[in-house]
Write a structure and sequence with these properties.
The complex is a heterodimer of chains A (437) and B (371).
Chain A lengths: L13 H19 L6 H14 L8 E5 L4 H6 L3 E4 L2 H6 L3 H11 L9 H12 L8 E5 L4 H14 L3 E4 L7 H22 L5 H29 L8 H6 L9 H19 L12 E5 L9 H10 L1 E6 L15 H13 L4 H4 L3 H14 L4 E7 L3 H4 L2 H12 L3 E6 L9 H16 L7
Parallel strand pairs in A: 1-2, 1-3, 3-4, 5-6, 5-7, 7-8
Helix pairs in contact in A: 1-2, 2-11, 5-6, 6-7, 8-13, 9-11, 12-18, 15-17
Chain B lengths: L13 H8 L3 E6 L5 H6 L2 E5 L9 H7 L5 H11 L7 E5 L3 H16 L5 E5 L7 H22 L5 H26 L5 H13 L2 H15 L9 E7 L5 H8 L3 E7 L18 H11 L10 H14 L4 E7 L9 H10 L4 E6 L6 H15 L2
Parallel strand pairs in B: 1-2, 1-3, 3-4, 5-6, 5-7, 7-8
Helix pairs in contact in B: 3-4, 4-5, 6-11, 7-9, 8-10, 12-13
Chain lengths: 437, 371
């Protein structure tokens, strides 16, 4: 085992542990004098400390899973706590991730997605380190979540609300979800003792305006990634996944604004994000992000001049709310945006939705290397894999590399094995030169 | 007509072939939220897809990968290799694997120039007024499309007439369960009989099942060392139960989606809202832990069945990569412990690859619980 991240003989407090780790990174970067990148850690500190300090600040803490209307939760002065951030945060720490995965596997099959196994494991061990006031979740993304969420409802023993997401993302489906958003309001009123009155709606509108700004920035960042060479490294895709619980906050907007300014500055200077002399390849990771080994993107940049321009999780497709005074319209657009959440948009409905996402990613980002870095827990995407990769071959003429990985459990595949598989593909199929040799 | 065809486990396309020969349509369906009443009302023969006795699903695995459930892969294999030669496929999103059967088959059929009626029903995963309304609208769309496809519009009268027939089946299955309770019918035989419902026309099935029940009533009880109940993932292979029963267990009850769960209580139709009654019935009954709000109710039904059927032990079979039935033990096991019923958990694949190991585990379990 690599580094010991905690004392296994004592209970872990996940929130304190995470806050301390993020703070250590922050202090380290301060001491190294890296002011130009401090914003990448500032936002992480904000996310975790907001959750840790919710009670201290007199706020209710609402855990959530899947696509839920975070802006409504914030309008009721509550702090949303996206449970997926725990597994993605600890994915590179095999001792800690393993602690929770192993705990869950006593009760659930090993084939369950490790994102859910970590969350259930923390709940089973009672190691979140904070009290949750309510649990709001959706019936997507997948069958694993559908086992996990009802189990966590019972483990948390707090008020719960479930959004049933329709399989098809059409007008009928949006209307169905909009009806549930309406039903969510009284749930929040009862939970908080606050009314959804004119004053609350004004607050909500302010949050939505901020959320619109953030989405606009995300779109601009996406556009920036389309440029050749790409100035934003693959790692920024990982950072931007933090926006889910931050919808409608100024901190989120500020982080995206800084990122855009940095990116534009690098573009003006004619720089590239790759760590070798030039950008040679533009990679799309067409399924999930490999949180257990995000360093693989740095390695591809350094050794092959291959920049990950987009991934299935990082791809943002959403809506700008165009009439905030019209609640009926807002509900419908909220429903639509819930179903456009990353990897909900492509993977939870019919396979044709994924093909649409592929079209946008591969055309707009000028992708020339396609990698299905398939998280083994994401079985429904594996089950569409051939349809999608055949489509990519046929339409874009790009052969796709299949690599099975566990996005959360680093014990599944070693870094060396992964590098060997990807390296062989680059050198034998793509014909790439290895700058690291 | 003899009831011998009830006991044939291999998938027979004979009924569908004869049906189609008369100029009518036969359509396959996947999962418990496709109301057969709608297909019958459209004069379409419903064929519930299963994968019994599939020994090689490698063609389908190329499409669905080794990370998919082997039941789903095997059903796709049977569609691909012509074991099923039907006019189309209707599927509800029971689980993501079921949805991918439709996605892949739709894609493959199109690629091969095979005309198919393809339709997907969105089945909600929570039950309330809003979700029943949505599901009803989904069923209306199915009814409209099927009517256009078959040339016979789905009417309230047609649905009521179809419900009368499916209720007749439910009544006969209830009698079959009484015979199981009395140990006059083995679990292996019962599953064979229930599987026959997948590929016979409803009239053939009613006639054969009626004959069988009349005959089986005169039987004496089967001697067994322990009375068992089976729960878990889609089990469409009676041989799996036979291995257990060969070791002295008798499977007298089940909570399987090809078993008791696919029949249920009788459907009561409200004349004022016929399709609404069907939507309410199919969404409210607890067929599968695919839904997010029915776990405690499913567990209670299992516990109640244990009491009613004098169950000594439960065998919980989990298909590899079946998430829906993956996580029930955490809450179910304590409930069962409270009534003194132990549970054996076994993992399986669609193909009978571990019969020897299953036999050993079943024998040990029976020895442990026999009185």
């Amino acid at each position: 085992m690599a580094t010991q991240n905690f004392d296994p003989t004592k209970p872990v407090n996940m929130i304190d542990l995470t806050c301390n780790q993020v703070d250590s990174i922050y202090q380290h970067m301060l001491s190294k004098g890296m002011p130009e990148v401090m914003w990448t850690v500032d936002i992480q500190k904000y996310v975790w400390e907001e959750v840790r300090d919710a009670k201290k600040n007199g706020k209710k803490l609402i855990a959530f899973g899947g696509p839920v209307p975070v802006t409504i939760i914030r309008a009721f002065d509550c702090i949303p706590f996206f449970l997926d951030t725990i597994p993605t945060r600890i994915a590179s720490m095999e001792d800690l991730a393993g602690r929770y995965i192993d705990e869950t596997e006593k009760y659930a099959p090993t084939s369950t997605c490790a994102i859910d196994k970590v969350q259930i494991g923390v709940a089973l061990k009672g190691e979140f380190g904070i009290d949750i006031d309510a649990f709001v979740h959706a019936t997507v993304p997948c069958d694993s979540a559908r086992i996990a969420y009802p189990m966590m409802e019972r483990l948390f023993g707090c008020p719960c609300f479930t959004f049933d997401c329709p399989f098809r993302h059409d007008e009928k489906g949006y209307a169905y979800l909009a009806q549930q958003i309406e039903a969510f309001i009284p749930f929040m009123e009862e939970l908080t003792g606050l009314k959804w009155d004119a004053g609350r709606y004004e607050k909500f509108k302010g949050i939505m305006e901020e959320s619109n700004k953030a989405f606009d920035l995300l779109t601009q960042l996406g556009d920036l990634r389309k440029k050749t060479p790409c100035v934003l490294p693959g790692r920024m895709l990982v950072l931007n996944e933090i926006v889910a619980p931050l919808a409608g906050t100024e901190a989120c907007t500020a982080m995206l604004q800084t990122q855009l300014e940095m990116g534009n500055m690098l573009a003006d200077m004619g720089m590239t994000a790759t760590r070798c002399p030039e950008e040679r390849y533009r990679v799309c990771l067409m399924q999930n992000m490999l949180w257990s080994n995000t360093g693989i993107m740095d390695w591809m940049e350094k050794c092959y001049g291959a920049i990950t321009v987009m991934d299935g999780f990082g791809y943002q497709d959403g809506v700008i709310f165009d009439d905030l005074d019209n609640w009926e319209r807002v509900k419908m657009q909220t429903a639509e945006s819930m179903l456009l959440t990353p990897m909900i948009h492509g993977a939870t409905g019919p396979t044709e939705y994924w093909l649409k996402v592929i079209d946008k990613m591969y055309e707009d980002y000028k992708v020339n290397v396609s990698i299905f870095m398939g998280h083994v827990g994401c079985k429904h995407t594996w089950a569409s894999g051939k349809i999608v990769t055949d489509y990519i071959q046929q339409k874009f003429g790009i052969p796709t590399l299949y690599v099975d990985v566990d996005a959360i459990d680093p014990r599944y595949k070693s870094n060396d094995e992964l590098r060997a598989q990807i390296g062989e593909y680059f050198e034998s199929v793509v014909g790439a030169e290895n700058f690291c040799k | 007509m003899s009831y011998e065809k009830l006991l044939e486990t291999n998938i027979s396309g004979e009924s569908a072939k004869a049906w189609k020969a008369s100029g009518k349509k036969a359509v396959g369906y996947v999962c418990c939220h496709v109301p057969t009443e709608i297909l019958i009302a459209a004069d379409v023969m419903p064929v519930r897809l299963r994968a019994t006795n599939c020994v090689d699903s490698s063609d389908a695995e190329a499409w669905m990968s080794s990370f998919s459930c082997s039941f789903a892969k095997s059903v796709l294999q049977y569609l691909m290799n012509g074991t099923y030669d039907l006019d189309g496929l209707v599927q509800s999103d029971g689980c993501m694997m079921a949805t991918r059967i439709l996605d892949n088959w739709s894609h493959i059929a199109k690629k091969n120039g095979k005309a198919q009626f393809i339709h997907q029903i969105g089945a909600p995963r929570i039950t309330n007024e809003i979700s029943i309304g949505y599901y009803k609208a989904e069923l209306q769309t199915l009814a409209d499309k099927l009517g256009a496809f078959s040339g016979k519009a789905v009417t309230d009268e047609g649905l009521k007439s179809a419900a009368a027939k499916t209720n007749e089946v439910r009544g006969l299955i209830a009698q079959l369960f009484t015979l199981r309770k009395e140990a006059k019918v083995s679990g292996t035989e019962a599953l064979r009989i229930m599987l026959a419902n997948c590929d016979l026309t409803i009239d053939e099935y009613i006639a054969a099942l009626g004959e069988f029940i009349a005959d089986a009533k005169g039987r004496g009880p089967i001697k067994a060392r322990a009375r068992l109940m089976m729960i878990g993932s889609a089990l469409d292979n009676p041989e799996y139960i036979r291995v257990i029963e060969d070791k002295g267990g008798l499977v007298v009850a089940d909570a399987l989606c090809f078993g008791a769960r696919s029949f249920g209580e009788k459907l009561v139709i409200d004349d004022k809202d016929v399709l609404g009654s069907i939507a309410d019935y199919y969404l409210t009954r607890n067929t599968c832990p695919r839904a997010l709000d029915n776990r405690p109710a499913i567990h209670k039904e299992i516990v109640d069945t244990c009491k009613a059927y004098d169950i000594q032990g439960i065998i919980y079979e989990k298909m590899q990569n079946c998430e829906c039935w993956g996580g029930e033990s955490y809450y179910l096991e304590p409930d069962l412990k409270a009534i003194g019923v132990p549970m054996l958990q076994v993992e399986r694949e669609e193909q009978m690859a571990n019969a020897g190991q299953l036999a050993i585990r079943a024998e040990a379990f029976v020895e442990m619980i026999e009185k």
